[in-house]
Design goal:
Length: 224
């Protein structure tokens, strides 16, 4: 069974959304300098690298990381490839067999042009159009992701796609590494750090061709 890692490595060279803090790492203890162990201090924003947005990121009183068990962040879905250099449109969703509760990731020109490897963010990127967002809402998918810093255009501070999706309870994953995966149906695992009551978190995402039913977490008291 082949496992695809859809996560970008976080480093000092990681590209970040305009205004977000850059990743920094410093050693507090270092065995190479005679200390008994090595210990690092990390500093970075909670939307660094491949990450997930919860409703509280945009919606006042919206649900946060504390409301979503791991079982909700797993499931069947699709990688949909957009072969032209425009934004994700409603037309790109036609005849894709999208089901209620799917996880949908968009592979666009952002991956082909390896925009994540550039030093600075660019507005010459693909985002999700309002028409596509409305169709995803109509299909009642549960998570939507894209292969760059934002589902909105990087310079659109009103964040209409964030507002549309998150207000309907559709979680957002951004900066996904889709360079080495083909379009098709997959089973996804999205694993964020377990930090209480925050609006977004870095995640590790894996995908397999095998369709698996998630195991219900024991003793979970979270309600989606």
């Amino acid at each position: 069974m082949e496992i695809y890692d859809l996560t970008f490595e976080i480093s000092n060279h990681s590209i970040t959304y305009p205004g977000d803090p850059a990743f920094k790492s410093s050693k507090i203890m270092d065995i190479e300098k005679g200390d008994s162990y090595t210990l690092c201090n990390f500093s970075f924003g909670n939307h660094t690298g491949t990450h997930i947005d919860f409703p509280s990121h945009i919606i006042p009183g919206g649900k946060s990381s504390s409301h979503y068990p791991l079982s909700y962040l797993m499931g069947n879905g699709k990688v949909i490839e957009v072969l032209d250099d425009g934004h994700v449109s409603a037309e790109h969703l036609q005849n894709k067999g999208i089901q209620k509760g799917d996880i949908i990731f968009f592979k666009t020109m952002n991956s082909r042009n390896k925009l994540q490897e550039q030093k600075e963010p660019t507005t010459s990127c693909s985002a999700i159009s309002p028409e596509a967002a409305n169709l995803l809402i109509k299909h009642e998918v549960k998570i939507v992701g894209i292969d760059y810093l934002s589902v909105d255009m990087v310079n659109n501070e009103s964040l209409p796609i964030h507002n549309a999706l998150l207000s309907h309870g559709i979680l957002i994953v951004e900066n996904i590494n889709l360079q080495n995966i083909e379009a098709g149906s997959y089973y996804f695992n999205i694993s964020p750090l377990k930090i209480d009551n925050v609006d977004g978190l870095p995640v590790r995402i894996s995908a397999t061709k095998n369709s698996t039913t998630p195991i219900k977490e024991k003793n979970e008291n979270k309600n989606v």
